[in-house]
């Protein structure tokens, strides 16, 4: 039988971290006969508002629900996003600056195809979301990492960015509230990043998926609030985090229309667009905000953040409470060799799973990412 030869590009990147961890968890549960308490994946686990789910069932039963959607946004969704951005951020959008996504990760994975050629470079945060790197490597482009470190409060050092630039640099990934660090950013800090991009003819892709998951009075800004940011930037948003629609795979990208057109061309070869019922659901949710449900969701995450923080301190972890995202970025004890060993030891001995910081870059070697999307009813049984 002929040996199957898979594409060489598969050798450019490792197996996705959560796929690998899932296999290890299954082995540990089988050996220990005990359910693992997983603080690994950041899966929004608050049930969506019943108001939204009831409406979704109506949309599914409509006569056109089973048809292929168009490649762009239906009028209801584009109008809803225009109104939501105006209300939430004071930003004016038009329909040519909007594209629905099959989840935020859809845009993240396909934008490199639209913006990079083989040999081009893109600036990527370290630590940062692994999906910023994999698709770049697949097409033969080069991720150039910039450092988000404790000494700089896990924020961007503009001077370092300038040093990383070359004539091959095409764009920069920026993500606040951050996955994995939970760090947030101010309007003034975003303004400086936009200014740098304009000076050096760079695009910015701003991952703002966690804009509505914030705590302690902080409200996340949009990069498009910066004057003329649309000249150089697009912003990715997520229904998964905002409305707990994670499994429905719904997101959006807004901003620079040339980037939107390029991404839409790529996606026209990859999928057939976001389904009509899901687009109608997104439009309904954006224009009929369930404020009570949203407050309860944030309160749930905040309470769990605080309880989890108290417990993980007993393991010798040190950290600052995040003002945004669904994660605590915690430093491991000095006696631990590295994050991978720390996590595997904890998993096997206590059946507790954290994500090793090295999954997000070399700067994560002394850190773990702890998700707050966890049922904590039995947390005392593990700590």
Describe this structure in words.
With 383 residues, the protein is α/β, with parallel strands linked by helices. It folds into two domains: 8-47 and 291-381, Aspartate Aminotransferase, domain 1 (Alpha-Beta Complex); 51-287, Type I PLP-dependent aspartate aminotransferase-like (Major domain) (Aspartate Aminotransferase, domain 2). The protein is built from twelve helices and twelve strands. The chain has helices at residues 17-32, 50-60, 75-89, 104-115, 134-138, 158-164, 187-199, 239-243, 257-270, 276-287, 291-312, 339-350, and strands at 37-38, 98-101, 121-126, 142-147, 169-175, 203-207, 233-238, 251-255, 327-331, 352-353, 355-356, 367-371.
Task: Please summarize what this structure is.
It contains twelve helices and twelve strands. The chain has helices at residues 17-32, 50-60, 75-89, 104-115, 134-138, 158-164, 187-199, 239-243, 257-270, 276-287, 291-312, 339-350, and strands at residues 37-38, 98-101, 121-126, 142-147, 169-175, 203-207, 233-238, 251-255, 327-331, 352-353, 355-356, 367-371. The mean pLDDT is 95.
